Amino acid sequence: MTEKTGWWRSAAIYQVYIRSFADGNGDGVGDLAGVRARLDHLADLGIDAIWFTPWYPSPMDDGGYDVADFREIEPLFGTLAEAEALIAEAHARGIRVIIDIVPNHCSDEHRWFQAALEAGPGSPERQRFWFRPGRGPDGGEPPNNWKSRFGGSAWTRVPDGEWYLHLYSSRQPDFNWDNPEIRTEFEDVLRFWFDRGVDGFRIDVADGLVKDPHLPDVEDGDETPFSDQEGLHEIYRSWRKIADSYGGERVLVGEMWLPDMARAARYLRRDELHSAFNFDFLVCPWDSQRFRDVIDRTLKAHDEVGAPAAWVLSNHDVTRHVTRYGRQGDTGFSFANRLHELPVDRALGTRRARAAALLTLALPGGLYVYQGEELGLWEVLDIPDELRQDPVFARTGGADPGRDGCRVPIPWSGSEPPFGFGSGGTWLPQPDSWQDYTAEAEAADPASMLSLYRDGLRLRRDLPTGSLEWLSLGEGVLAFRLGTEFTFALNFSDSPVPLPGGELLLASGPVDGELPTDTAVWLRG
Fold this sequence. Notes:
26% helix
């Protein structure tokens, strides 16, 4: 699925959540040394690029998304020199490097926010953020009714009486992008890392930088005043000019949870972002018609702006799809309710996850693989409350279990924790039952999830490009053709169906003349 230009148009990108990938120094926390030691795993997997979640200095209130310095490396992870060596070592293996940038907010330990607290009301330092007086006779009520996406109010009061805005944790104050100083700062941050060889940026909360300056109250969950504001397009046009000024096709990838796919696609016009995550596909429940509708809407919206689609099943914020697809009930995903209380048939979820992997690998465009997805890992639901670290859990009083369950350190080898993650323990506990799901164990098993991903990523490089043509193979069967020689089919129905004709290239499970339920195949001819 290669293109003459635009490597990102068909790239397979692997997400590394550094704290949970591999530990090189034995302190129980993943680091850059651990990643460097495991680069051959990623090269053997067959991915084209790595996306690193934030590696900047951080108090880790939100797992690194509370950044204290955008031009350095978190000491827990290593040094700037190690990051530069990692970039070079990845490039030597033909793997590009994308890093997170977090422009919506910073840590409350960032030097600018500390200066704003010290300077007081009306100061230039406070203009970098959203400081406002409160409502009510004594200013004791927040400036508006906005809610934090992590629970509770989006406003916190400081000792001098003013309030500051934080759409996430109270330790993550939002930048005021109406201030030109913020724009200049982040343009310089882009150049800093491009100069060090990174191939692109994944933009956290890409839809939320610009706020309605009047800060109006919202009704019924409407996020319009702090999402998808027109001023964002000007920012990303300026960023695109910077990216295009560097050689090697540097890219900008947006994280935008927008309800309207057509509006999201507007950010992918040729002078703005290169790509954006397809979250409608991620949250889709296990249903053939729902998947077909999402795929149709995705391809149509992206075709209208000449951008590639990007398919994703899991990431560091959502319940792993082995667990979602195995639920007895709703198999979709929503931040409003993670449904961790529902019973899970893990064997069913794994079978469906294998079929979904072949679907994402076959669809036109690029795709993202979240670390551990290639091993078939599931959401760890039984983490003791006292060990949970996600601020979502704390800010909701435990009503939302948070995201720790998809961030448990991944297993590499051995028969007991820490499963080769490092020489020490792990910052979150691993299930004992992961002994059969280590990279070492699965590499030796041709029927494993790891082998399926390796085979799929290898064969994917030769799949035809072009438009997708739907095929009718019976109710509940999702099937399409690419070009004249490739057919994909996935049976969502309750009964086996006849296997389409052609040479079998790859199957997510056993097939023998029939396509079983929850099984996908690739066929040639």
